[in-house]
Automatic annotation (TrEMBL):
Coiled coil: none annotated. GO terms for molecular function: cyclic-di-GMP binding. This is PilZ domain-containing protein. The lineage of its organism: Bacteria, Pseudomonadati, Pseudomonadota, Alphaproteobacteria, Sphingomonadales. It comes from the Bacteria. InterPro entries: PilZ_domain. It comes from Allosphingosinicella indica.
Length: 237
């Protein structure tokens, strides 16, 4: 019976979703978009699965509170308009075409263009080795300072997630070293350089950023960019 409610699709190579997160998100095989009341309460928010919405507005990380074959309810790091077209990325669900159908402060409802196969999410558990799936990343381009050992480097951050970031740096000897990254409007973040290739390095944070912390930082960046754009427009008219 349930098979008639969800669309079949291949799931080979799908990214696993943290099993503890699956236990704290409301799942439904209904083809309807979850309603605001379907979302779980505020307990165990750190266990909710993270995803990403990509659209004309660029992209934003979301914290999923309810998921059905027809859509989802999530908190978004930046506000979106009703009717906005998005592509949903959530674990095994990749680039699912959808649109925003309702908003309520930072929470929004998203309807998939076609019913999604939730088995692709539910069937994927964290491997027994304990390896955790990589959090969704926001592609950005902003300056930062990184301290590696005794040396400071001016760098450009290429993407950031709750658990780490990628930045442009030429020194390959930084791999394995402890580092402190400082970005405008965000507290210094301690971590370890895990890899370096083709002029870029990956930093894993010692302590993951909170969803609210990264959302606030993203909001400040959007506000600053808007102000700069307005100032530039005023000078050219």
């Amino acid at each position: 019976m349930f098979g008639t409610l969800i669309r079949r699709k291949k799931t080979e190579g799908a990214m696993p979703v943290d099993e503890s997160a699956l236990n704290t998100t409301m799942f439904s095989l209904s083809t309807e978009v979850p309603r605001p009341g379907d979302a779980i309460d505020g307990r165990s928010l750190d266990l909710l699965p993270m995803g990403k919405l990509v659209g004309d507005f660029a992209q934003t990380i979301i914290r999923v509170r309810a998921l059905s074959a027809g859509g989802l309810v999530a908190e978004a790091m930046q506000p979106l308009d009703v009717g906005a077209r998005v592509a949903v990325e959530l674990g095994a669900l990749r680039a699912i075409p959808a649109r925003v159908v309702w908003t309520r402060e930072a929470t929004l409802g998203v309807k998939f263009d076609q019913d999604a196969d939730l088995r692709a999410v539910l069937a994927n558990r964290a491997p027994r080795s304990g390896h955790q799936p990589r959090p969704p990343r926001l592609d950005i381009d902003c300056p930062a300072t990184i301290k590696v050992g005794r040396y400071y480097h001016k760098v450009q951050v290429r993407d950031i997630s709750l658990g780490g970031l990628k930045l442009a740096i030429k020194d390959p000897s930084c791999v394995g070293q402890e580092a402190v990254v400082t970005l405008d409007s965000l507290r210094p973040i301690r971590g370890t350089v895990r890899w370096h290739r083709e002029g870029h390095a990956g930093i894993v944070f010692d302590r993951a950023l909170a969803f609210e912390e990264l959302a606030e930082w993203l909001g400040k960046r959007i506000e600053i960019a808007t102000m700069r754009s307005g100032a530039w427009s005023a000078r050219t008219h």
